[in-house]
Each structure stands twice: as structure tokens, then as C-alpha cells.
Amino acid sequence: MLLSNAINVLTANQAGPYMDPKWVVLYFYYGGLIYAVLGRYDEAFAMMQKACCIPAVAPSAIVVRAYKIYVLLSLLLYGKTLRLSNCRSPVMTRSIVPLCPDYSALERICDNEEVDFDKASAILEYLEAHYVTFEKDKTIGLVKLVVRSIRENSIKKIAESFISISLSDVTRRCHLDDNDHTELYLCEMSKDGKINVRIDKKQGIAYFDETKIEADEHEVDKAANFIYKLDALMKQFDDRIRVNPSYISRVGRPLARGISTAIPDDGFGPPGFMPNINVGDIESAAAPFLIYII
């Protein structure tokens, strides 16, 4: 509703068509910015992805901006730049990507898998060397979030691999400044629920425990009931099929020589024939269950 209102205001006094391709691109671009400000980076990434995949015959300044943010959000969420959909315009590869060399450089830094290569420091060094460009694009904050994400992911890998480890080893493995810097990261990540850590400051050792995920018992019971209901309906459906005369006649019919033993998947009777069961019951039981799976 917020994005729709914004477009209505922009187009209220415009002569000609109510909406042209520019407003469609702006919808996804501004929507991505709003989601990013709210910290909903997955939705922001999806909006920028759509903005980059809109058909075009010439490069657009809006799409160039959207692609820059798309790259940073992809690095933030996945540690690499995900390939755009095949429905993207050829203009993207031919004209828009070459207009973003600094962001392509960040991609190459994150793709570097050399041993002991400090991606976070390399990005910060590149940011300092090209500060004017990122300041003009107003993406310095996102670049710093990418750096923090890289360091946090390094700490998560250590938490998954070790039960206890010295702070100095964490500092060395994660390329942090010193033990105080490491302790700050550990405390903040523990506070946010990303890891479960206890720090022995006297001995300088961090103890990692398995992160506990609290589940709502009511929601778990509700999902389990849907599963039981679906299972009962499927058994009922199976039982009625097995005693259906058309099914029995087909299964018991002698096969001619050279004919496959596989039962044709074209129903068990005349066109439109179905056993006496309400398929809607199965769909209604399955729909909520599928929501929990997604």
C-alpha cells in the first residue's frame, strides 16, 4: 500500500499513460530501498532482482543503481553475487554491468578463495581507495554491512567446528584486530542469538554451545495435527481406490503378450470418473501444511 500510494502521487499530474516502464522500475527500486532501510534484506534483494530483470532495449540509470545495490545485497546475504534470472535483458550484461566496475571488483574480492585471504580487510581497503565513488552512490553503509557479514560468517564457522578455542586463535582465523575486537564480536553475536558462547576472560578461552532454537509448542502441535489429518485422508483415499471395481478389474485383467505391466495413468474408469471421496478435503488439509513447509 505504501509503494502504491507513492506511485499514485508521482503520476497524479502526469499527462499521457497512467504508468510507463519507468514507474514500474521505480516501484521495485524504491521498494527495495524501503525494505533495506527496514533491515528486511531478503525482500530488498528480491525487489532489486526484479528491477534488474525488467525487459529493456537501452541502459537505464535506475537499473544501474538497482544493480549496484543488488550486488551488495547478494554479497551480504550469500557471500557471492547470484546470477540473475535468464529472463534478464541482454542490455544488462552488455551495457549495465560494465558501468559498475567498482562493484564487480567487490565481487572478485569475495570470490577469492585463497588460503588466509582476508576478504573483509580487502573490501575495506578498496572502499578507502574508492571512497568517493561509494559515497556518491550512497552505498558505504551497505559495503560495511558486507564486511561485518563476512566476519560474522567466519566466527559462525568456528563455532560450528570447535567446542572451545582461545580468543587469540579466533582473532587470527577471523583476521580481527585484537582479542578485545574479537570479544566484542562474540558478545554482540551472542546477544543477537546468532551463536551461543561463553567467554573465560581470565584464561582467554571461548566456549561454544549449540544454539538453542525455541519453538512455539502450540504451532508445533497445530502443524502435527494437520499432518495427521492429511495422513488419515490419504489412507482413506487409498482404501477406497483399492476396493473400487474399475481398479480391481484393471489390475486383475490378464495382459496380452508384449504389453507393459504398468497400469495406465489415465484414471480408473470413464472420463471424469473419480472414486466417491471429497478431494477438496485433501486439498484443504494439505494447504495449511504446505504453508508450514514453505
UniProtKB/TrEMBL annotation:
One of its GO terms (cellular component) is cytoplasm. Keywords: Cytoplasm, Membrane, Nucleus, Signalosome, Transmembrane, Transmembrane helix. The chain crosses the membrane at residues 23-41, 53-78. Residues 141-223 form the PCI domain. Pfam families: COP9_hel_rpt, PCI. One of its GO terms (biological process) is ubiquitin-dependent protein catabolic process. It is found in: Cytoplasm; Nucleus. Its main location: cytoplasm. Coiled coil: none annotated. It comes from the Eukaryota. Belongs to the CSN3 family. PANTHER family: 26S PROTEASOME NON-ATPASE REGULATORY SUBUNIT 3/COP9 SIGNALOSOME COMPLEX SUBUNIT 3, COP9 SIGNALOSOME COMPLEX SUBUNIT 3. This is COP9 signalosome complex subunit 3. It comes from Onchocerca flexuosa. The lineage of its organism: Eukaryota, Metazoa, Ecdysozoa, Nematoda, Chromadorea.
